[in-house]
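User: These chains co-purify. Model them together.
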Amino acid sequence: MTKETTDVCPVVIELVGVEKNFDSQKVLAGVDLRVCEGTTTVIVGGSGEGKSVILKHMLGLVKPDAGQVKIFDRDIAKATARELKDVRRDFGVLFQNVALFDSMTIFDNVALPLRERTHDSPQQIAIRVEELFDMMDLPGVGAKYPAQLSGGMQKRVGLARALSLNPKIVFFDEPTTGLDVHKSNEMYRLFHHTQARVGYTAVIVSHDVPKIFKLSDQVALLAKGVIQGQLSPEEFQRSENPLIREFVETTMGPIYSSEREESAL
Amino acid sequence: MFFLFEKIGDHILYYLDYAGRITIFLGQCLCRVITPPYKIFPVLQQINFIGARSIFVIFFTGGFTGMVLALQGYYTLRKFGSEGLLGSAVALSLLRELGPVLAALMVIGRAGSAITAEIGIMRNTEQIDALECMAVDPLRYLMAPKFIAAVISMPLLTAIFDVVGIFGGYLVGGLMLGVNGGTYFQGMYHSVDWNDIEMGLIKSLVFGLLIVWISTAKGYFLNWERGGGFGAEGVSRTTTSSVVLASVTVLVWDYLLSAILL
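Assistant: Joint model of the two components:
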């Protein structure tokens, strides 16, 4: 999405000049990012660049040293605990290690947000959980514990839990890490299917390039502590920014922009 | 020299910061305990875990404590020809001092360590972050039921400890060493008054609160532990330090409460 279109779209998440240091190490050095409603924004970058740190800022788990983190126009960096809780009511999160409650059954894991945040009866909750299990192709797992499931199934349970309250924004931290190609494709299919059904805004941190480009409306590269560019996947792959170009070439192979360059090889 | 001052200052700042964190944590947890919504089932679950499942160990330690008190007491009292005071000696020792303290130490070992490990693992595996991101307050959901359960369970466990201890003392004093049963219980009846029971009750309530506070706070602030509270080793180290800190705190507070209430 170009600059002009982001100006007119309804922005749900906006990071302005976010800086963060851990001890003496500067991780984020002025991150600017805008996420439009209903779109999918993918944050890419090398390992250890701070992609997950950006996500933690959006979730309100980490406070920035400087800058603003606006969710629905509310700066959560300065929000009180109560305000933050209000903002998080619209969140769904799929953590990198899924973070399922390991001493609870799968059913209880998915039912927990419904039990704690709604006044639904146990019957209504059971129906909703079964509906989510059906959506995620998870038949007969309700009585099992997270440790008894495969990595791919755990991710699907995590997605079911994240979507249980029909959130407006869903955050994915490396949703396909540790999964084989088949299971990754299955996750992407479920993502596509659920987003079409629920219509949530998605923020994905991933290094599964180029596959993740197919799902994204916007791709942002984090390098040297700043967002080097937030562009559509096509623009991203054609970008002249040397860091983006280097990233694309490293992950997707060389890009030949002219006949002269190609014939020189 | 400058390095030494820097080190000392760094330590002081760290402990002040940590003390501040866990004090605010205590206040926040107590707020969650007294404000609605109230959920009964999680509290019952925790009473079962902290209280009911500790009864067996409390029963045994209480029994043997009473028995050894009677044995030692009889040996000492016989020197003065005062075997008749055995019941009073056993009951007063248990009610005022040994009951609350030993029951608290048993609960620290059995439930306090488990609470620190459970919360610590939840912190390490981002389960607490997951709760926060779901807009579920971890203090209300995880901590508040434990606080209520500990404060309810501790006085009851202490009462069981005392009663079993008194009968353990009777078993040794009355049935094995030949002290008259009537004298044993009559002496107790005359020497124990409400103040003694009240002291034990207050101590057990305070110990219950201290145990659950330290155990939960240590787990909750696992990542702020000095030397790193990460991974399995971090959890094990923090659990150990939680048990040590809770035990020492209980003994220090035992002295303070005795000095205040006497």
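The first strand of chain A starts at residue 11 and ends at 22.
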